[in-house]
Amino acid sequence: xxxxxxxxxxxxxxxxxxxxxxxxxxxxxxxxxxxxxxxxxxxxxxxxxxxxxxxxxxxxxxxxxxxxxxxxxxxxxxxxxxxxxxxxxxxxxxxxxxxxxxxxxxxxxxxxxxxxxxxxxxxxxxxxxxxxxxxxxxxxxxxxxxxxxxxxxxxxxxxxxxxxxxxxxxxxxxxxxxxxxxxxxxxxxxxxxxxxxxxxxxxxxxxxxxxxxxxxxxxxxxxxxxxxxxxxxxxxxxxxxxxxxxxxxxxxxxxxxxxxxxxxxxxxxxxxxxxxxxxxxxxxxxxxxxxxxxxxxxxxxxxxxxxxxxxxxxxxxxxxxxxxxxxxxxxxxxxxxxxxxxxxxxxxxxxxxxxxxxxxxxxxxxxxxxxxxxxxxxxxxxxxxxxxxxxxxxxxxxxxxxxxxxxxxxxxxxxxxxxxxxxxxxxxxxxxxxxxxxxxxxxxxxxxxxxxxxxxxxxxxxxxxx
Length: 466
Hints:
Blueprint: H1 6-15, E1 20-24, E2 27-30, H2 31-47, E3 55-58, H3 63-75, E4 79-82, H4 89-99, E5 103-105, E6 125-131, E7 139-144, H5 145-159, E8 167-170, H6 177-189, E9 193-196, H7 202-212, E10 216-219, H8 221-229, E11 243-246, H9 253-263, E12 267-268, E13 270-273, E14 277-281, E15 296-297, E16 302-306, E17 319-324, E18 331-332, H10 336-342, E19 343-344, E20 347-356, E21 362-367, E22 371-374, E23 377-380, H11 381-389, E24 394-404, E25 408-417, H12 425-433, E26 444-447
Parallel strand pairs: 1-9, 3-4, 3-5, 8-9, 8-10, 10-11, 11-12, 25-26
Antiparallel strand pairs: 1-2, 6-7, 7-18, 13-14, 14-15, 16-17, 17-20, 19-20, 20-21, 22-23, 24-25
């Protein structure tokens, strides 16, 4: 069998030929329908004379067309990049200039075609996903057919414990790992159903869960908070759900508890990125869970905590989290120096500061590059955010450093309050003082209506200014 990841989907298309596996808007596809539409795309791309292994940009407003384009491009052996429909023209042009695709696929050809998936090498690139760079320039994470195969297995088993009968509700951008792999490709690989909404809206999501009898809803923390902020949640509407999952951005334990109290449903938390899929997570069947941790190593994943010199730290010492997994990206596209900076002997340097408990549970305490140097002390912004998030009036928080003449840097918190809450800045400061060391609590508090975020829901701290 070819190493092309599309061959695994060919097998699913045979096994579940007549099952409706993809639904969106007024359209639905059985696996056989989807395979034939993807085959038409593969044939169309081949007819353009572009060579196997060249790059194809998948650019559609409709997420179902994006999915068809992705499968078609993979079947024909091209390297595909799905684009986020919400990118502004300048942002889209920037990514296109970095990708330099052989073709931009922006329409699905008419008709159906039975197309035999082409042979590729397991290490050949399959998908390039663009992620935010620290300098503001996107970076393309190059994922091989082997890494995609391993990553999808992690989603199917460790992260979601997927069953063929599952119905997964997808509202996440398909240009990013969580949306593409977790909510679409993994379910389809298992013969489950993916119900796709073009974007998040509280009423739309609740209606879709009820109408489709969804068993899994994959969201980000902001989505769960917005549903809760609507008021009393009708448990009957959510009664079909086995569980929900959170990703892309941290999900505070307090939010997970509020959600369970209001709905009776668990948020299964995890940790992932474009470069590594979801290598650390809880499983829906886990019985051990702690408030501060985000899960344990997925099957086949190795973890270690290291100091600034790359030496392994024992016990529960805090250091940088390094991850080794066959799901890891091959490189950053055309960025050899940045690739070298994060890869060492098969280990990926996450840049996250973390601890690992004796039970193997991982707790993220901050970003290595998001540390605040205050008066000789080093404070992880994430640690401060955890404490601020515990305040009952706080919905979301982002902590950054600001320049200080005497201390070098000072701790500044940007806070989104829950509806109807009205604490003062001093209230927040006093709460934090009671919870953490004197050098760690924020001295500057700014209340804002919302936090600036990228397409995956991660806070863009570069846009926070005092």
